[in-house]
Amino acid sequence: MNNFKLSALDLATVSKGDTVKQAIDRSVAGAQYIEKLGYERIWFAEHHNMEHIASSATAVLIGHVASKTNTIRIGSGGIMLPNHAPLVVAEQFGTLESLYPGRIDLGLGRAPGTDQVTAMALRRNNINTAFYFKDDIRALQQYFENDDPTEKVRAFPGEGLAIPLYILGSSTDSAHLAAELGLPYAFAAHFAPAMFEQAAAIYRREFKPSRHLQHPYFIACVNIIAADTTPEATFLSTSLFNMFAGILTNHRRPLSPPTEKVIYDGIPEIEKAVYNMTACTFIGDAQRVADEVSAFAKTYQVDEIMTTNYIFDSAKRLDSFRIIRDALLGA
């Protein structure tokens, strides 16, 4: 049995033929199911101007899923902090923590979670907010930890609440920052694996203990498609690969049923691009998943595996969560 924790990342992806409400219901069902399986947490990611993703109002979705579950931790993977005033984030997550005490995580990212035009709309033309990421994290910490009643601006709800912060990233910049601040670090290897190895080494080498965390805590987010047999898992994985091909070619589609061959079969440029984006993807039956993911976690000293689950069929999606749990943590 592995000693790392197991969790999930969800974007409330809209499947072909479904509505946004059905996508959110599917996310709730997934959270309820993995809660019973013993997963540590489920995070929702902030994305904007993406027709087939329903997690843009991330704090609202977190509250909804938290209300439908009992024990599993719910959080953001992440809140794109440059899009928001730190005070508003402190108030939102202070409210969530007040409603669901001991269950809320606040993962923070620097990217806009969208295209530059939409980022301008979100930030009211102040595109330079990303340069203040570190300062905004410090401001958030101050709002949560303030004990000075004379401060002119305070976060209510929020002040005095121990909401854990996580730094998210897909580059080495975020690794340096998480290490400097002494915060847990989650790397988005599920879509940007190129700098994963380098970032993992930087984070552990440069980590400075803080009052929040004495030792490095490293989360790797990866794609895992598990099924009863490896051929079935390979077939189911075409939904994921076709989705990424749509992103790369700017022909975004809802999550679609699997296909006998990927839709870009025989187009080398797209094949290479999809492979580069999805290099941290594990596909197979329980034994193959156990062997490959366990070796990956050991090599990179991963404290927590966070899995995506882009499987079209809802029943097979839930069953994949079970197979992953059994493979990595034991039945």
Automatic annotation (TrEMBL):
Limits of the Luciferase-like domain: 10-299
Q: Which Pfam families match?
A: Bac_luciferase
Record's InterPro entries?
Bact_Lucif_Oxidored, CmoO-like, Luciferase-like_dom, Luciferase-like_sf
| PANTHER family named in the record | LUCIFERASE-LIKE MONOOXYGENASE
Q: Which NCBIfam families match?
A: oxido_grp_1
The entry sums up its family as follows: To bacterial alkanal monooxygenase alpha and beta chains.
Protein name, as recorded: Luciferase-like domain-containing protein
Gene transcribed to yield this protein: yddN
